[in-house]
Amino acid sequence: IEHLILHHHISSVEKLSLTTSGCPLLIQCRNFRVVHFVVPRERDCHDLYSSLLRLLRPVSFDELYAFSYNPKQNDQQREEGWQLIDLSAEFERMGVPCDQWHWTDVNREYKVCDSYPRDLYVPVAASKPIIVGSSKFRSKGRFPALTYFYQEKKAAVCRCSQPLSGFSARCLEDEHMLQAISKANPNSRYIYVMDTRPKLNALANRAAGKGYENEDNYSNIRFQFVGIENIHVMRASLQKLLEVVGARALSVTDYLLGLESSGWLRHIKAIVDAAIFLSKAVTAEGASVLVHCSDGWDRTAQVCSLGALLMDPYYRTLKGFMVLIEKDWISFGHKFADRCDQLDGDPKEVSPIFTQFLDCVWQLSEQFPQAFQFSEWFLIQIHEHVHSCQFGNFLCNSQRQREELQLREKTYSLWSFLLSEQHNYENPLYSAALAERNPVLEPSTQPCHFKFWTNMYHQYDRTMHPRQSLLKHLLAVRESSCALEKTAHELEAVGARDLSVLLHVVPPTLMCGEGLPARSDGERTVEGSSATENSYAELQGPFGAKAEPHLVSLEFGVARMTC
Amino acid sequence: MEFAELIKTPRVDGVVLHRPFMPTVEGTLCLTGHHLILSSRQDNTEELWLLHSNIDYIEKRFVGSLGTIIVKCKDLRIIQLDIPGMEECLNIASSIEALSTLDSVSLMYPFFYRPMFEVVEDGWNMFLPEEAFKEIETLTDEWRLSSVNKDFGVCPTYPQLVAVPKAVDDDTLRKVATFRHGGRFPVLSYYHKKNGMVMMRAGQPLTGTNGRRCKEDEKLINATLRPGKRGYIIDTRAINVAQQAKARGGGFEQEASYPQWRRIHKAIERYNILQESLIKLVEACNDQSQSMDRWLSKLEASNWQTHVKEIVTTACLAAQCIDREGASVLVHGTEGTDSTLQVTSLAQIILDPCCRTMRGFQSLVEREWLQAGHPFQQRCAQSAYSNSKARLEAPVFLLFLDCVWQVLRQFPCSFQFNEHFLVLLFEHAYASQFGTFLGNNAAERLKLKLPQKTVSLWSWVNRPQEMERFLNPLYEPNNLVIWPSVAPQSLLLWEGVFLRWNRSSKCLDEAYDEMVHIIEYNKELQSKVNALRRQLAQLETGDGLLETP
């Protein structure tokens, strides 16, 4: 059995202590694959180990796979791939520009904010000096900019970073900026300012000259803390989670208590709770909301994108979801390079912020099985490629960096690749009509509705998958229906016209009813599977002994290899 | 006794009914001998018909003269009734309490229920032991049907007919019965067609502290082994529990006496431990105001999922011994009426594709639970809300259904029935208009004349118009042995039962309907295409020249 693992996927390599069968090498991947090699000779193992370590630490972007990946497309196809997602068209779809919101070129040289995109939308009433003044009062220059416009109520979702307010500092331009956002919405007298951090963290930031908005200085704002933890807490949480679920012979008690103490689902719920708050403020109250955290590129991205997903059914389509990620994550400067450890960098910057977002989306899709055009395979595939560095979309930390590296000319876009195999990622139960009737999702936030996403965190652990995939089955049935529709149509046409053509139109293999077509996808299911894989008990003794595998290491049912 | 004596106030107007995720209904509350009925007297509003026997527990509250009764049902639903007038409320409450805890089985609703449908196929005759044995007879001549228990004298909890090795005569069986708990001598539970291996079940051997032996018992179980073959004894108790049982006259098979058998101990809990587990689980599921962390630790503290894992694992082990090791298996715990049946029945689901069909599963429940003497009446007398000190109550059957659901979830295309059917069995085991789950064993059912006096659940459920709801649209017969994963990550909380009343099921129901639609549509297309082809073929051969295409 051969195994291909992208170097970029490997997050750690560990040499374990020598055993009788050889030297074990443990490789952990960012797509939650765990591979256990046993190399018979210790010297070979050491060589393998050190060369892996060298390969794992690229120092510049052009060493990444995306720059050598060539899917045999010509330049025009490549360019078309990149043009698939057009954010200015997306703002137009939302109804922007309009009388209250317009496009601004204030950041065209990336001078006001180098982690923001070039094209930004702001209230018409916010002049350039106000924007520039506001940006100087915001961490990393990330001034309040429009990210979602709820046309029905003219309510806006804006995002920014924390104000540099310290204990008492004020900034008139920033106050004006918020007022302009407020005035742009005729339906509400106030706006919400959501600080997505726990209050304690925000307070601590004040000592460093940062902090949060003082309600006395801003007219008509309603200030709200949400309490999502920072990147370090999230990193530790995922690490703990993976330790728990990676344990062998895991008991139910250790699993549930480990799941709890990892805090992972608590964090997921906090993000969903925040998104629901945002969505309710906008859709029910018709109020505009300004969202920020510290730098406004992690928690803010999570809450803004998930909130929009709740409000707008478009983002629950395949294409819309790509647009959403392009907009709230890629263009607004979520630091994918740092968070996903693309280059040899600071390990403290690595954090599963985007993974959490996908997890939240999955939780929603579990509650609303018909609301999403895509299935979990789509989410898992996106996750795969956020870390694979095979496509240019997620490279670097900002639009500016991406332009400097000319990614559009040198790499390919993931989205056209995913759309080309769209049928694999569709949710067969999706109902567009339902989305029209109930456009806004109102999920339950009861704790029991937040679940561990086995198919994500155990995607390579086939022993844990459902043995027959409902999703796969339904996709196949739907595909077969399409083929049958076509056949029926042809037969009707033939019957009406000329009988002699019959045998040429209908392939003989179809004569006895269409079989379900075989599919190729990432899902591996085992009809029946095997008893030995599951280790229900050790059947030792004279007649219960099983043959020892020959120089094969089977760890967690993941990998099997002889070296 | 007349029910009228228990009903002090048969009717109250202006009662308001509150149910989670449903609009409140105002109407007239009526009490009958077996039902609590709320009627809104409006055509389009749903009425409430609740069997008194479904009521597990009630709570009363008063605010001024407005009384509130909170009704907690055995199917885990909680409803609230606001009743104007303190006296009316107290009367209603005491009537419900009395009517929901009737002592006499013969006063239960099934004895009064008259079906509104014609019984085409009588469920009481559908799964007779002699019928079930006929199939085994075609495969092997090593087993026979014994009527040694004809008058229930040898084993009061066994049916009149049991399958035993042909080589063992009835006298031997009588002797073995004295050596096994409750007279439950080893009987055939399952015959594995593929390799002729068998699964048997029994009560614990009464070895006691001095290691009593019974040559006939050894002879009986050895008679099931092929020459040179060995078998496994799966004791569903932990070794220390089995040891302790010796002091009370019980015990387990000693290696010295049973050299051809290897004993494996698994720890499946029983009785009050399971009942408490259910109570804690339901408490956790109903707790509305909790943080993420408390939910998980409460779920853990209930231990429910641990019980599920233990049962599935043990059943898989039994199946593994039979199918993979090619060995016969004897399963027992203490009495052989609870954990034993969980293991033997679940193992058959894993091994035998027949048990995954609608009929086959009903037959399994009938054979391995009803006829095998699982005391339904005792175990299902109370559910999760009762605060009376439970003694005999235990959600043994519910746990089995949960385990089946786990396997069904992992093999969604391999079962002919769906989750709704499992939920239905749970409901009817606890409260029903049908007589199927009344009584504790075959002897009691015969005495109660259930087949003559009540309707069988199977008579109702197998009518095509009812059955449709319980059929799995994804079903494609799968002749393989199905090995489920028992990793804690693969065993989920059974939301269809435990969160059923705590969530709005609208989205999930609609999704299910859509799934059915996708599959139905595909079937329609297939028959359409086939019909078109036939037409064309006829046209081509000239036979159908006169027909219009």
TrEMBL record, chain A:
Pfam family, one: Myotub-related
Recorded name of the encoding gene: MTMR6
Family, similarity comment: Belongs to the protein-tyrosine phosphatase family. Non-receptor class myotubularin subfamily.
Protein name, entry field: Myotubularin related protein 6
Myotubularin phosphatase domain span: 81-457
Domain Tyrosine specific protein phosphatases: 262-306
Principal subcellular localisation of the protein: cytoplasm
Keyword set includes Cytoplasm: yes
Keywords, ordered alphabetically: Cytoplasm, Lipid metabolism
GO molecular function: phosphatidylinositol-3,5-bisphosphate phosphatase activity; phosphatidylinositol-3-phosphate phosphatase activity
UniProt GO cellular component terms: cytoplasm; nuclear envelope
One record GO biological process: phosphatidylinositol dephosphorylation
UniProtKB/TrEMBL annotation, chain B:
Annotated protein name in UniProt: Myotubularin-related protein 9
GO molecular function: protein phosphatase binding
Localisation per UniProt entry: Cell projection, Ruffle membrane; Cytoplasm, Perinuclear region; Endoplasmic reticulum
Membrane topology note: Peripheral membrane protein
Broad class of the protein's primary localization: membrane
Sorted UniProt keywords: Acetylation, Cell membrane, Cell projection, Coiled coil, Cytoplasm, Endoplasmic reticulum, Membrane
Source organism of the structure: Scleropages formosus
Keyword flag Phosphoprotein: no
InterPro entries: Myotubularin, Myotubularin-like_Pase_dom, PH-GRAM_MTMR6-9, PH-like_dom_sf, Prot-tyrosine_phosphatase-like
Recorded family membership: Belongs to the protein-tyrosine phosphatase family. Non-receptor class myotubularin subfamily.
Any one GO CC term of the record: endoplasmic reticulum
GO biological process, one term: negative regulation of autophagy
Domain Myotubularin phosphatase: 123-498
Alphabetized PANTHER family for the sequence: MYOTUBULARIN-RELATED, MYOTUBULARIN-RELATED PROTEIN 9
Keyword Coiled coil attributed: yes
Domain of life, source organism: Eukaryota
Annotated SUPFAM superfamilies: (Phosphotyrosine protein) phosphatases II, PH domain-like
